[in-house]
Amino acid sequence: MERRTYSPKQGEAHTQRQWHIVDAEGKTLGRLASVIAQTLRGKTKPVYAPHIDMGDFVIVVNAEKVIVTGKKETQKHYYRHSGYPGGFKAISVRDMRATHPERIIEAAVRGMLPRNVLGEQQLRKLKIYTGPTHPHASQNPQPLEVEGSGATRHSA
Fold first, then answer.
1. Nearest to 146 by CA among 55, 58, 56
2. Which residues 6+ apart lie within 8 Å of 82 measured at CB?
3. Residues sharing a CB contact under 8 Å with residue 8, sequence separation 6 or more, in sequence order
4. Cα separation of 6 and 75, whole Å?
5. Radius of gyration, alpha carbons of the chain
6. Helix or strand or coil: residue 118?
7. Superfamily of domain 17-67+101-143
């Protein structure tokens, strides 16, 4: 009897994409981002291949209410450079939350995905909204369970 390792191919029947919804209110940023990244990559499915985009769509609502622990609200910065002299910008989490709160979650998830074409393709399946509403009700999203919210953790 010969045994062979099964490798899934792109376009097979088990690559059906589902839609998941996550409420970011009261959730810790890193724990939330790691669950979202695993779902986008498809690691939560029984058949997983790192070279194929097998992941599901994820909708995040209430992005402005995500929790960052410690002093990250003022001490953590997001950096960018325009390419011109003096074009360096550093924006704190507090300022980012005031202007573009969805970018906080997007940056955290982006850092947990591969840095190639496949990672960009997986990131496009992430939909982030600041309020409690979203335009994807027709996709019938299922709730995605995220453990470890900062507000409900108790020490024994």
1. 58
2. 89
3. 14, 15, 47, 48, 49, 52, 54
4. 47
5. 18
6. helix
7. Ribosomal protein L13 (3.90.1180.10)
Half-sphere exposure of 117 (CA within 13 A, CB side): 2
First and final C-alpha spacing in the chain? 52
Task: Give pLDDT tens digits for 139-151.
Answer: 999 999 998 665 5
Average confidence (pLDDT) over 82-108: 97
Residue 35 contacts residue 146 (beta carbons within 8 Å): yes
Q: Tens digits of per-residue pLDDT, 116-125?
A: 999 999 999 9
Mean pLDDT (whole number) for 72-79: 97
Which SS3 state, helix, strand or coil, does residue 125 take? coil
The confidence band for 15, taking pLDDT boundaries of 50, 70 and 90, is low
